[in-house]
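Quick one, T. Sequence first:
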Amino acid sequence: MRFGLFTTSLIAILLPVVAGAQSLGDLGGTGSSFTLSMAPQYPAPYSKATLSFLSSSLDLINATVTVSANGKKIYKGSVQPVAVTLGRGGSVVNVTATISSGGVNYSQTLSIQPQEVVLIAEPVSSAPPLYPGKPWVPLEGSVRVVAVANLKNANGSKSLDPATLAYAWTVDGMQIANSSGIGKEAIMVASPLQYRERTVSVAVMSTGGSLVGGDSFSFSSLEPSVRIYENDPLLSIRYDHALSNRYAIAGAESTLYAAPFSFPTTNGAPLLQWFLNGATAQTGNSITLRPTGSGEGDASLSLVASAGAYTTATANLSLSFGSKPGSNFFGL
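Structure tokens:
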């Protein structure tokens, strides 16, 4: 089945087909005597899928179940969840579950084909240049979520081109029609409110729906922060040591650099404002401090970073200047 433009009604029809890609059948007894379900819905390669059993007509408490995977018995005993070990991506595990109740056997089969689908979150938020870490999900911002799919056929010899796959996106249980479709491997998601979580899920299908995989994850927003670093004329910005509490200005001048972390950048970089002794000094990432006079003194420096009316962070330093450098035992 090849998809064109997705509509809400079309997705509502397609998704049950996706869930049924792990095929299920009844081999005996009286029709659908019990329900065989699997978790997770889209298992990953070399993971475990847990089978569960439910019935409104059978006495499962006094029944026994036998589970076989690819013809090999892996469990026999009381009815309880059973874990099935899966292999490489694309390999098929044919599972047969037989429940014995009241002297009658009831069987169902399930074909499990694990596929590799991983969701990667890319917060649209600030981080200093060459920062080795990853910024947090910003408040009042957004996150780009990318699905990396590696769907393989049963022999595992060939991976399908991600551009030819169909992606069905769900955010907090709601299907997102305008972000779903063939080749739409990424979606922009608004950050959740503070202290809340947002869940993003994707189902990835091959042409015709013969291969299917998926993934899901939840994330929350974190408050941004701003750090002050010394910009050394020889060593450049010293990211290895963030300044806090007190800073002594050595020499005729010192340049400080402000690095905002995890501010939303959807509408541009955050605003950085420096305040010296409570008065506005300047805006921007850097400030150069030049003490005047010949005596010693103290001052206060504040930095306010903001992106919108409600997303702010501050940093404060007590400055000292004019002090003489210490001497060693030789008076040098």
